[in-house]
Amino acid sequence: MPTVYITAPPDAAADLASQLVEERLAACVNRVRCRSTYRWEDEVHDDDEEVLLAKTTDEACDELMARVEELHPYDVPAVERFDVADATEPFEEWLDSAVETGEN
C-alpha cells in the first residue's frame, strides 16, 4: 500500500488534495505546513510549502502520480512513492473501497 509524498505551495495544496480525492485516486490526503529550503536555478530558496501525504492503492498509484504532475504548478514537483509495509486491516479495507481504478 503506497503513500505518495508531494510538496506544493500553500495556495495550490488544498485544490490538489481535493482533486486527488474527488477523482478517487487517493482515499485521503493529509496536509502539513512546512518550510522548505532548496536549490532551484542555481539559487537557494526558502519558502512556505505544504507536504501532502496521499494514501492510495498499488493499482492507482501510477495514475495518481501522473495526475499530480499534470495539476501541479511547479515545473518539477516533488512526487515520491513510499510503500507502507503494514496497516490495520480496517484501514486497508477502507482505503481499497475509497480508491477506484479500472479494476474496481
TrEMBL record:
Keywords carried by this UniProt record: Cytoplasm
Entry-linked Gene3D superfamilies: 3.30.70.120
Cytoplasm keyword on record: yes
Alphabetized Pfam families for the sequence: CutA1 (PF03091)
InterPro entries, alphabetized: Ion_tolerance_CutA (IPR004323), N-reg_PII-like_a/b (IPR011322), N-reg_PII/ATP_PRibTrfase_C (IPR015867)
Family: Belongs to the CutA family.
Protein name: Divalent-cation tolerance protein CutA
Species, as recorded: Haloarchaeobius litoreus
